[in-house]
User: What shape does this take?
Amino acid sequence: MQFLSIPGQAKEKKQLVTQVNQDRIPHAQILLGRPGSPKLALALAYACYILCQDRKDGDACGVCKSCLKSMQYKHPDLHFAFPVISKEGKKREDTTSQDFLDQWRPAVSENPYLDIHAWSQYIGAEKTQPNINTRECNEMIKQLGMRSFESPYKLLLIWLPEYLGKEGNRLLKMIEEPTDNTFIILIAENQERILNTIISRCQITKVSPVSDIQATEYIKARHPNIDSEILAQAVQMSDGDLNKALNIALGSSVDYSDLLLSWMRLSYKRDFSELNDWITMLNTKGREDIKHFMEYAMSFMREYAFYLQTEDVSRLSDSQQLIAKNMTKIMDMIKVESVAKLFQECLSEIMRNVNPRICLMAKSIELGDILRSKDQVKSLYDM
Ligand SMILES: [Zn+2]
Assistant: This one.
């Protein structure tokens, strides 16, 4: 990540660059900004800048050996700690960020404005609250206690220290007296939820939210086909939260409900030739679109679950209401959970670059099994 790919934030960028240029990098610093503000993006660009071997015009060069590694978040002297849940097959107390680096790297590359909700979805943590545990704290201390590998510097980025419990007190000594050329950067959004003992030992740099113009330009550059009017409204509604703007804009620009209904119907029918045609059609849309479809499917399941429990249709569009009412014949809360989990797995696999055709076919079969399970289900044909 380079500073130039972050819209706006001139003041913050200048402050961070000056620290490095004048050799006055604080040993412990908190980048503090509201959700959807570019604090994580700035921290990543700042880390790249510190580690770059050929800094140019106030930015990392982007091409030196060091930049190539740090821009893939694989630099051996750049450590990360962030909230996680237990990894499959491991106890929570044995799991750390290390176990989730393969998900962290693509998540951050795709969306450096990542918030805890998007991250929770990414790692399948809708039901469990991610956190930063004791073992993670011990790992951080260990990592920073070692010699650096390639750079004169060692960097530790702690994303969302709000999710550190009292365990955070273990870090105090490390924050207060880090070894030479060791810098700890905390990326936070809610000062009140961070241990006071930590705050008092850090320099705080406030990060302002993005302006409407910056948000619009950023989203347009990544999604050039987006409808301008929808984008303008999404930005206006999101109040400087770039993540929210992106979700609103993408979520409202395409209605995937027909696509979702046809997927469920074909999976239920288990007609492999028709399923194959459907997958081919979806596959031609490209990975990004498949991703958005899966995100839509997940958000639809959440809304559907809400509807099942409350019979309140106000959060559903007209076409969604129709589907939801039909779906009650075949999908109860237990199935909703299994289906939502399946969509989540499908999304994670697509993001991990699993072949979409294979992934979609496997998931379609599973989806069919879930929908058909139990005896008393009415046919989906009459939906
Ligand atoms: Zn460089």
